[in-house]
Amino acid sequence: MTTTSQEVERAKQRSQVGQARLLGLVSRVRELGLLIVLLFIIFIVGIQVPRFLSIDNFEQILLSVAILAIVAVGETLVVLTRNVDLSVGSMVGVTAFVTAYFFKQLPNVNLLLGILLGCALGLVLGIINGLIVSFGRVPAIVATLGTLYVYRGLVFVTAANTTSQINASDVPTDYLALATTQIFGIPALILIAAVIAIIIGYFLHASHSGRQLYAVGSNPEAADMIGIRRNWLVFGAFAASGLLCGLAGVLWGARFATVDATNATGLELQVIAAVVVGGVNIFGGSGTILGAVLGAVVLGTLQNALNILNISQFWLQAIYGAAIIGAVVLDAFITRWLQRTILFRRKKA
Amino acid sequence: MKRLKSLLITWEGLLVLLLLISVVMGSVLSPFFMSGFNFYALTSNIMEIAIMALPMTLIIIAGEIDLSVASVLGLTSVVLGLLWERGYPMWFAIGVALLVGLVAGCLNGLLVTKLALPSLVVTIGTLALYRGLAYVVLGDQAVSNFPSSFTSLGFGTIPGTEIPWSGLILAILVLIFVVVLHFSRLGRQLYAIGNNKEAARFSGVNVSRVKLMLFILSSVIAALAGVIFTARFSSARPDNALGFELYVVTVVLLGGVNIFGGRGSLLGVMLAIFIVAVLQNALGLVNISGDIQSLTIGLLLILSVLGPNIARRIQVVITRWRLVAGSSKQV
């Protein structure tokens, strides 16, 4: 009697270990698959237009991806907790405009002060989102759909009270240099994005709170039961998303130099596309920063390829939409296949 | 007095009060507010949103959401415009536009029901996809040379009144939806699905089929709204009704429909539509731009869910406080 129950226990454990290993495997397969897709795009476009393969062009792609990647890293934190942040485009828009306006009004001010101001503003907006979602008990979709328009409205209010557009000539060159400086021959913008991705990636992988974030997303009730402070983690994820949007906004202003009230409109769709294409599960609880960044790179490469192949940019948004649908459908099939495999193994065991 | 108090405490009572306040505010802010023409402008401006809010109410009651409605509107508008420009007859163009809505709804519905994907993600994806296709179809062009027989659907009024023709369409739709939601088997099934999907399935409701139907209905109605929108502005552009999903979701939730499904009434939604219409109109009359109007609507959306949550918490605190006070008296 005892032996059989022990055997059952052992089999259970074995299947659980197997399940965990399979899940890990899937995320690896997913990232590898994305890499193959990326190489495939590069190969196909490269054959037709050799110019596409130049180092210069790759630098261009990474430059255009850098800001998207920073925002996507923040969005990943939110999506991991089984939430979504639709207000990222507006948060980037607000901080880009306000930072540029700040530099326009005070051209001699310390550069760092402006950067900190932008980041702090993003953090405040993120905190508002977090408060509404985790302590106001408003579903993230409703809360951030609301703040998407509230924050965008704030830019218009600010812009209407100031000049409606800020040009490159209005802001100090120090600020614009932020986007063009090179460190060891690599543009600073790319380095900043890479450093952020590595820090957050390591935090998710190794830190206590990082692992708890996954726990909250994969089973909120269970996370509550084992004493994880779910509300605070969700709050933290939204605040972090806001902070990263703030930084992205500062960089946005520096990169595009000319900002008006509509800048970064619709960015949320690109960001969500990057995140789900990168294999971050929209049901929460699984996905990596590496995946999200790869997703952003794939989308950026596609955009660049359209440009080089002289295909109308009007296709872009349809591609983002198709990418979101395609990625979630693929994930659904992978999950089904996974469940079937585990079931099959259990039967054998 | 007690009855009045309990009436006010219901959500619908609160909405009536809110509507009265916004009407008074509107007439104080602008002398043009209480004119017949303004009533016409006010009702025709909210028409598409009102029409799309009807199926959205049903979808949210069933525990799902459809964020792609505004994009379906944009897509059908450009399809209509393109076909008319290419010389097809108007009835044919309208037919194809409605068919596009049907296909769009099928895709939404099948992804949600067959693959068990969350409607939130699916419709964010199709929000981008359908709007993107609208840009692919027409680029940065616009079609505006529609025949007057078509545009009178948008501009014209029922003879002898200030009620726009599209108002008649809305009235008929409202009647149908009220009967379906509140007086039919299907309506009760929707509430059952929203309250407990599993229980609904075990009591013999074909959950998948009902949901598929809802998403198709939503997109077909959005296509109809696209036809009306195109007629009203006599213009088919890919960015038509950009961001209208905010307004549609707002009026439904402000109308007291529970975001988690299972609760809500069309009466509340109709009241909410009028509140948003009056608010938008009043802000427009005092020259506040559309983007800043969206800000107020966004606030309204958050408050319509946040408000009741906070009220409930305060109630809990008060009850606890009273209990504590009561027990200490006894001691």
SSE diagram, text form:
The complex is a heterodimer of chains A (349) and B (331).
Chain A lengths: L1 H47 L6 H26 L7 H18 L5 H25 L4 H22 L3 E2 L6 H8 L1 E2 L2 E2 H19 L1 H11 L1 H6 L4 H27 L2 E2 L6 H11 L11 H20 L6 H34 L1
Antiparallel strand pairs in A: 1-4, 2-3
Helix pairs in contact in A: 1-12, 1-13, 2-7, 2-10, 2-11, 2-12, 3-4, 3-5, 3-10, 4-5, 4-10, 6-10, 7-8, 8-10, 11-12, 11-13
Chain B lengths: L1 H8 L1 H19 L6 H26 L7 H17 L4 H25 L4 H20 L9 H8 L9 H19 L1 H11 L1 H6 L4 H27 L10 H11 L11 H20 L4 H41 L1
Helix pairs in contact in B: 2-13, 3-8, 3-9, 3-11, 3-12, 3-13, 4-5, 4-6, 4-11, 5-6, 5-11, 7-11, 8-9, 12-13, 12-14
Arithmetic mean of pLDDT of chain B = 88
Q: Largest chain interface and its two residue counts? A: A-B, 44 and 46 residues
Instruction: Compute the average pLDDT of chain A.
Output: 85
Task: Please provide the ordered H/E string of secondary-structure elements of chain A.
Answer: HHHHHEHEEHHHHEHHH
Number of helical stretches of at least 4 residues of chain B = 14
The helix content of chain B is over 70%
Largest sheet of chain B: none
Number of strands of chain A: 4
Q: Span from first to last CA of chain A?
A: 18 Å
Total E-strand runs of chain B: 0
Radius of gyration of chain A (Å): 22 Å
Here the CATH topology of chain B equals: ABC transporter involved in vitamin B12 uptake, BtuC
The helix content of chain A is over 70%
| Number of domain modules of chain B | 1
Spell the H/E element sequence of chain B: HHHHHHHHHHHHHH
Q: Could you walk me through the main structural features you see in this protein, from its secondary elements to its overall organization?
A:
The complex is a heterodimer of chains A (349) and B (331). Chain A is mainly alpha-helical. Chain A has a domain at 63-264. Chain A contains 13 helices and 4 strands. Chain A has helices at 2-48, 55-80, 88-105, 111-135, 140-161, 173-180, 188-206, 208-218, 220-225, 230-256, 267-277, 289-308, 315-348; strands at residues 165-166, 182-183, 186-187, 259-260. In chain A, strands 1-4 form a two-stranded antiparallel sheet. A two-stranded antiparallel sheet of chain A has the order 2-3. The longest helix of chain A has 47 residues, at 2-48. Chain A starts with a helix and ends with a helix. The model of chain A has no long low-confidence stretch (mean pLDDT 85). Chain B has 331 residues and is an all-alpha fold. Chain B has one domain (35-323): ABC transporter involved in vitamin B12 uptake, BtuC (Orthogonal Bundle), CATH 1.10.3470. Chain B has helices at residues 2-9, 11-29, 36-61, 69-85, 90-114, 119-138, 148-155, 165-183, 185-195, 197-202, 207-233, 244-254, 266-285, 290-330. The two termini of chain B are 34 Å apart. The A-B interface holds A 84, 86, 132, 136-139, 141-143, 145-150, 152-154, 156-157, 160, 261, 269, 272-273, 276, 282-283, 312, 314-322, 324-325, 328-329, 332 and B 65, 67, 111, 115-118, 120-122, 124-133, 135-136, 139-140, 243, 245-246, 249, 253, 259-260, 289, 291-292, 294-299, 301-302, 305-306, 309-310.
